[in-house]
Amino acid sequence: MSLCLFCYNENEKKVLTVRNKSLPFKNALVLPNKLLKYNQSLDEVCTEILTENIRNQEVYIEQLNAFGKLYRNPIGRVIDISFYGLINLEKDNIVLNHENNAKFKKLDSKLELAFDHNEMIELALKRIKRRMKYRPLGKNLLPNEFTMNELEGLYSSFLSKKFDTRNFRRRILEMDILREVKKVQRNKRGRKTILYEFDPKKYENYSNNGF
Amino acid sequence: MSLCLFCYNENEKKVLTVRNKSLPFKNALVLPNKLLKYNQSLDEVCTEILTENIRNQEVYIEQLNAFGKLYRNPIGRVIDISFYGLINLEKDNIVLNHENNAKFKKLDSKLELAFDHNEMIELALKRIKRRMKYRPLGKNLLPNEFTMNELEGLYSSFLSKKFDTRNFRRRILEMDILREVKKVQRNKRGRKTILYEFDPKKYENYSNNGF
DNA sequence: CCAAAAGTGTTAATCTTACACCCATGA
DNA sequence: TCATGGGTGTAAGATTAACACTTTTGG
Fold this sequence. Notes:
The structure is a homodimer of 211-residue chains.
Chain A: E1 2-9, E2 12-19, E3 29-30, H1 42-54, E4 60-71, E5 78-87, E6 103-106, H2 117-132, E7 146-147, H3 148-159, H4 165-175, E8 178-185, E9 193-198, H5 200-209
The structure holds a DNA duplex (27 and 27 nucleotides).
């Protein structure tokens, strides 16, 4: 079982990587993963991976794919099932496990992972992109209060395209998932920024059922 | 492992059902399914299900979902993974296994299956519907040569909506996946009908990569 | 020649895209 | 007061939806 755990930090999307502890590819950079043992449920392994690496198991996870290849392995039969998750470093109280060398890495072309883990990231990003056509994205990645520019940056980053500010704002507001927060953000220079939050019920609804 | 196997026959979508052989719900109508044994790959079980029920294992199958619930069972650990498939009764040389009471049933509100198999069908239909927004549908369900009306009927059936004939034809032709077959179909009454076939390369391409 | 089914174009409405300036604030 | 970043509206273009009649053919 492997997990692509994404965050959006410093205006960039990043993925959680660890150093592989065993052969093959010992010490290579990989996605956090664990073998699914004979007597474990998927959820149990998922929880283990999360606890071991970020000390929080209560995060948003979606299933990516199940590969039913059969490996003979001393531990038992291996079913390779991949998941992806979305978190916010502060909101989710992430504590990275240094023992595993758990680190969030920028998703650029220099990021080279062992096994087929690069492809797994690609698949996850493709799924997220596809999902964004039907459903909102952001609640799990952004802090509770955020600016329209941050949201635009996130969309821009995950969809790999630049948006026209005006069109973006109009489209997002039409989605009817945001509430203006009474407070505003003070900036060093220039105008104050309106802060938004997601309306939890509306967000949930669209997230589950699509627009 | 459970399989939703759909066909499109007599202008209706149908799903393969069998009589359950064991408890609980002995003799109830269910989707063809088998327990995934400790030493089997997913593909192996899938092949078994197909061979046992329709005598053909070479059909179009997509993975639906993997449920990692853990059941204790004398046979071993059970992972419940569902698939859906699309076939054409004639083209795929389907031979139904009467011993299992294998039958294609119309998908209407009267169809009541045991376990959560009705929900599984719903999920499969939802996925197919979603897929149709990005990718063509029909090659696996229709005979090699078909009329525009048949294709419209199929789309109409799977998307549960009526189409405007003119708009439908225009949209499909713009997709650039069809070829006119030289032959035409003679009808009892009225005008001859143009026959189409899918351009295999173009269809494959759009089916894999989306429009 | 007529009943039955197939086939075909145009217009209005909607949605999407492109584009540039003013506003508020802190230094 | 000015440099900085935030915020806003409109018009053209593209896409989608609505609509009804003519063609072909077998009986």
